[in-house]
Amino acid sequence: MVVLNVAMVGSDELAKSIAKAADQRDVHTYVHKEMAGEETRILSIIRPAKYPERLRPLLNALSAGQVGLIEVTAVDATLGEALVAFASAGLDHGIAVLNPPSGGWVDEDQVKMLFKQAGLGDWSFSSSDGLALRDGLYALLEGRKEHLRALSEAPLVVPVDQHFNVKGIGLVAIGYVQSGALNVHDELVLLPTEGTGNTKSLQVMDDDVPTAFAGDRVGIALRNAKEDQLTGSTVLVRPAVQDKRTNTSIPLAMTTHSTSSMDLTTSPFQKRTLAEGDVIHASVDLQFVVGRIQSVEGATMTVAWEAPLLIRNHEPPQVVVAQLDAKPRIMGSAKLTFVS
């Protein structure tokens, strides 16, 4: 089974023409499964229903997404911000759909120019036909299979966005496998609290499975874990290994930042400049953490975080930096270096 997570900005109607509606919270999901020979291929569309009013659901969708889908109904500030957000998250492959309202018109050449200026020049353009879009997304899936397989070989990183107790099962955590593979009976560390537990059982797409791979949205029944060790930004990783007999040393997959050195690549559409004392938000691996800039030297800034920010040690994804009173709210993408 291989899954392609698609971060989408667009209408419920367009999403339903491609896949069947599933979870309907702040972030709506839509799923389509089909067989290709012996392999099950799954499209999982992740649509922030309350965007543009709320920014965080969009950033969560971008954290989980591997490619993008944008429905263009007008050339306006919302489109500009969406383009900046997708580019800042590193989603440089995707599909754009020109779909103005009845009687309206969108200049395709202008839209293509905006995509190129934002850094999304490799995106393709499609009609609003659901079957054609499904085929286009499956083509993107085929092109990313090797990348998804490589991600499943990387250290385990599973951000948790929901947790609750289920009668007869116990504590259940739900999240996306961002990298690595999670097995039944695996020992886990709950960051940033450093609580521990292990996997009693796993569910992917409502099916019990022995292993969840990169890209899967997984439900994890946790044994020997305490609910108060799960926070709003918990990430599950494997324990560090220190074995003197075999001279093996494997650190935790993520480093906890309280202060970071930040090299910011500002969006081409952003005219605002960050300064000492400014408050920002960082989004990465489904975390959304507030920080304050302590100092600025050129494009490099020192940022103190109000809550722990977890950054992967192995090939960390781009960190999206936002400022909620800016227009657009997305400042750009950043590389963070551990300070303390």
Question: What's this, in brief?
Answer:
The protein is of the alpha+beta class.
Please give a handful of descriptors for the protein shown.
Elongation Factor Tu (Ef-tu), domain 3, alpha+beta, six-stranded antiparallel beta barrel, seven-stranded mixed β-sheet, 3 domains, 340 residues, Rossmann fold
Characterization of the model:
Helix 1 (12-18) crosses helix 5. The chain has three domains: 2-152, Rossmann fold (3-Layer(aba) Sandwich), CATH 3.40.50.300; 158-250, Elongation Factor Tu (Ef-tu), domain 3 (Beta Barrel); 254-338, Elongation Factor Tu (Ef-tu), domain 3 (Beta Barrel). The chain is globular and about 70 Å long. The protein has helices at residues 12-18, 56-64, 77-88, 108-118, 130-152, and strands at 2-9, 20-24, 27-36, 39-48, 67-72, 94-98, 124-126, 158-166, 170-176, 181-183, 187-191, 195-204, 207-209, 211-213, 217-223, 235-237, 241-243, 248-250, 254-266, 279-284, 287-297, 300-312, 319-322, 330-338. 18% of the residues lie in helices and 47% in strands. The model has no long low-confidence stretch (mean pLDDT 94). A seven-stranded mixed β-sheet has the order 2-3-4-1-5-6-7, sandwiched between helices. It has a six-stranded antiparallel beta barrel with strand order 8-9-15-12-11-16. It starts with a strand and ends with a strand. With 340 residues, the chain is α+β, with helices and mostly antiparallel strands.
